Amino acid sequence: MIKFVLMVNKQGQTRLASYFQWYPIQERVALEAEIIRRCLSRTEFQCSFIEYRGFKVVYRRYASLFFVVAVDGEEENELAILEFIHSLVETMDKYFESVCELDIMFHIEKAHYIVDEMVVNGSIVENNKVNILKPLALMDKLASAEGGIFSR
User: Which ranges carry the AP complex mu/sigma subunit domain (predicted)?
Assistant: First the structure.
């Protein structure tokens, strides 16, 4: 089960955090800081898996963003989580046309929507880019017709 998904820049600033289990804010801040510090301190020649406080933390760097996913310690396959991260990046690339940190910052609600379409209650429920992006395309179409909050 996925506990949380983070998107972090190279300076260690969290750009997106999506939690699927409740943690107090102080614990979230401490957890993110320690996990981010550990991920940023590793070289590209080290594996992308870390064990921390009972979590398996799987991360991958794409351009200037680190995508970090924490799962239950014993139950999950690390390679499957790496595949999920790659699918998430591909889906965001397709929607944002080459996703970058600014896309996440300026369209945070759409980035959260993509994550929420892929993961429900910590379980991966959708991996198909077309199925994930279809509702967003409809919202964009509606927003462009009405000039609403979802317009690009």
Answer: 1-142
